[in-house]
Amino acid sequence: MMSFFNIFNKKKIEQKSKTILKIALCSCIVLIILNGTTLAADRDVIVGYKKTVGASEKKLITDNGGIVKKNLNVINAVSARIPENNIKNLKNNSNIKYIVNDTVFKASDEYSSSWGVQYIGSRAVHDQNINGTGVKIAILDTGIDYNHPDLNTNYKGGYDFVFNDADPMDDSTGIAVNSHGTHAAGIIAAQNNGIGPVGVAPKADIYAVKVLDGAGFGMASFIISGLEWAMINGADIISMSIESTENNPALLEAINAANNSGILLVAAGGNDRTGTGTVKYPAAYDAVIAVTAIDQNGQKASFSPIDPKIEISAPGVNVLSTIIGGGYGTRSGTSMAAPHVTGAAALIFSSNFPDVNGDGKRDHVDVREIIRNSAFDVGDPGQDNIYGYGLLDVSNATLGISAFAFADLSITVDDGVSTIRAGDGITYTYSIAVRNNGPSDASGVRIFDTWPSGFIRGAITPSRGTCDNAVNFSCDLGTLTKNSVAIINISYTVPDTVSPGDYINFASATSLVSDNIITNNNAQDKNIVEVILDLIVNPGPPDESARNASLMNGNYSITINNSRLSKINMNVYENGVQREDMSTRFKLAKYQVISFNINIGSPELDLVFVPYGDAGTTGRITIRRV
Questions:
Q1: Spatial contact of 549 and 531, defined as CB atoms under 8 Å apart
Q2: What is the pLDDT of residue 59?
Q3: CA 217 from centre of chain
């Protein structure tokens, strides 16, 4: 949290002979910045031309120390790598139409970048075409980068009360408050356009009301002016990620006026490094929803205050959102939690919400009550000093389906053995146990099992539900109530055709109910298979071509236990052709044990062991992969 200063010096404004209230934005912890540009000496770009690309156009790049990587004929451009210092020179060339970053893409669901949006259930609400359409949100902060591709469509204007002009561009580029207002705006209303993260209310109208300077400081008069502007311009919600320890009566009067005009007010509760501080102003005012921050596990953030004024908890740790310059970055703070509540309120406003208090009106009072009543209660029952009424749950608020109706599926697998002898004729039992440790029932629970190659599976016996008979089988277990467990037993044998080695059986569990807390949704069991050959000398000539074991490429240990054999021939074959005769290696005395390692480099080799000696004499060979 930032300390106050007694003279606000911006555009050489001096305030003397009167008490000045400084409002500092809720300090946010900067974790990662994902800029739209690279800081490397060379930059990967796409260069567009005004005419068809030819040799002379490509020469422009090479003359500036760059290399052409690929022609992009469909857009009359090339991809190139150009020294950063030469890009400006190229942009000034009359033949160049544009130079833009060659953005790195990956296969990703946009919501996967927005853990907070997912966590509070926004996606389910969006799927019902509830997106905040038509809801006006005034964001009182450091301004907004209204050119950002994830914000420019939803941006509808604003005002700068720091410099008293109509250009509320975000200029917060310092380390402590980098992109503060822009980051908050993205959490509220970043578009669902396949670029970066999606906001809670991706079709809401956002207005930048700049009340803090680039360093994150402003005066109470700026805040008051911003509240008045929001009232005049018909805002439905005012979002304030700002804080002060001073209770200013003039500000309180303006807050109450905004509330009485029908505007819902949301503010960050403030950050405290000890995690024991109290809620700051304006969040501490009764007319304002005071928001605290939680992490991905639903736990109080280390910096969040403890105070009976806390009303609701929302995601505020490692939140990815928009930053100045068209990029994206993660931040932590109650400054990030408050915009989640603002966006959720916009979704409620744009839904068919009820008249909760029965006064004949559907207004901001009802929306605030819905946010409280729909929260997922954690901590002490009812409102408490840590979580308020609980975790923000916009899915429950709008659809009546809680985002926190979740399972916590854990799965274990075991067959009680680690080493198996191929061809031993023993039937083993492999067990899969899946348990629901979550607070809610898990419906549509399914188990998927990947079976080791060569193992012969027998009967599948589930304690509930049904299983198919595929090699890699699945089971439908239906609904697992909380704290219940289902067990699936599978019998199997390992024939002598299975080569020695490590074999993994992999099982996973899924549910139709979201698994917000993941303990262990998959598990594996490893079996070490060894080949044991019992050699016995029979009457008659030995069979020099008898195949005893087939080995895939890898390292193996071979142990020979001799009873009374006089010798053992060992031949190595590849595709029926002898590659090596290793017979001279073994000179066996009675009851002697010989061990050695071999490396198989070919895809598959056959080993042939031929015992010699008196009829009935024996030996044993054990082969294991190492």
A1: yes
A2: 94
A3: 33
Q: For residue 266, how many other CB atoms are within 10 A of its CB? A: 31
**For 196, how many CA atoms within 13 A lie in the half-sphere containing its CB?**
25
Pairing verdict, β 22-25 and 319-323: unpaired
Query: 335 in a domain, yes or no?
Result: yes
Q: Looking at the domain assignment, is residue 468 inside a domain?
A: yes
pLDDT 10s digits, 11-27: 333 332 333 333 444 44
Structure tokens at 192: 């669902």
Q: Which amino acid is at 221?
A: S
Q: 399, 418, 439: which is the final residue of a domain?
A: 399
Backbone angles phi, psi at 364, to 5 degrees: -65, -25
- Show the domain range for 581: 537-625
Catalytic (active-site) positions: 141, 180, 335
d(CA 78, CA 46): 6
* Same domain? 523 vs 555: no
Please give the pLDDT value at position 447.
Answer: 87
Query: Phi and psi dihedrals of 273, rounded to 5?
Result: -60, -25
For 217-276, give the DSSP string. EEEHHHHHHHHHHHHHTT-SEEEE-EEBSS--HHHHHHHHHHHHTT-EEEEE----TTS-
Does the residue 404 lie in any domain? Answer: no
User: What digits encode the pLDDT tens for the residues 402-445?
Assistant: 777 656 678 888 767 667 777 777 888 888 888 887 666 777 88
**Phi then psi for 606, rounded to 5 degrees?**
-100, 135
Same domain membership, residue 426 and residue 345: no
Which CATH number goes with the domain that contains 484?
Answer: 2.60.40.1530
Within-domain flag for 14: no
What pLDDT does 248 receive?
A: 85
